[in-house]
Amino acid sequence: VADAGHDSSRNITSGSPTRTGSVTSPRASHVSHHHASHSHPQPGSASKSIAPNAPLKRLDPTRRCALPTTLPSSGNATSPRGRTHVTPLSNPNDTTWTRSRLAKERKDWWDTRVTGQREIWGAVQLCVEYLQADNVAEAQAILDASGCTCPHGEIWRGVFGETGEWYKVPEWLVIEPAGLVEDPPPDPEEDDAGKTDDEDSVEEGLSREK
Fold first, then answer.
1. 99 and 180 Cβ atoms separated by less than 8 Å
2. Which residues lie within the region annotated Disordered (predicted)?
3. Residue 53: how many other CB atoms lie within 10 Å
4. Res. 69: pLDDT tops 80
5. Which residues, in sequence order, are CB contacts of 13 under 8 Å at separation 6+?
6. What is the distance between the alpha carbons of residues 136 and 71, in angstroms, rounded to a whole number?
């Protein structure tokens, strides 16, 4: 969440990549009307034609990223102030990461997006879920339908919204982190402690009938 692949909370910043694929022409140049129309899109027109774009790539099932808590809170300057912005996790001091905790942290991250357009965040989330299910074609279709473009083909490196906003997700939201541990098996005593008196009575009655 802290390096160039993890500055997720600062989704729309002045330090976001510029649209290097845009085409501009001098006023004095004698270009055709066709080229001029693409160089100066009118308000409301699709910006995908001038945004850098690459097809989404299939996730490498063997790839692993770093756990969020192992990432430094500051590093290479990615924001105008020279510091990366880190989203607080539920318990950043807990170094134990189970699969259930990862699922919860991911859900909390998506639920706390406050910048940009909610519809675009929803589309990006669906793209991530389809990529994780190894359905690249469906992820690409959703990205295209939302008017977004992905400059690198790797969605965690960021996408452009149709109106030019920059949407960034941390790598651990997409790629499985290294160092995950399996969830401990349920404790039978805790399950018994959670039962009500009525449940115990029903079980005793069934035992007697048997």
1. yes
2. 1-96, 178-210
3. 19
4. no
5. 79, 80, 166
6. 28
H or E element, residue 167: strand 166-167
CATH of 99-173, one of 3.40.5.10, 3.40.50.2000, 1.20.225.20, 1.10.10.10: 1.20.225.20
Dihedral pair phi/psi, residue 111, rounded to 5°: -75, -15
Strand 159-160 and strand 166-167: pairing? antiparallel
Spell out the domain ranges in the chain.
99-173
Q: Determine the straight-line distance between the first and last CA of the chain, rounded to whole angstroms.
A: 57
Rounded to 5°, angle at Cα 46 from 32 and 24: 40
Q: pLDDT value at position 184?
A: 86
Per the listing, tokens 């919204």 go with: 161
Cα–Cα distance, 151 to 168 (Å, whole number) = 12
- Which residue would you say has higher pLDDT here, 137 or 48? 137
User: Residue 39: what residue type?
Assistant: S
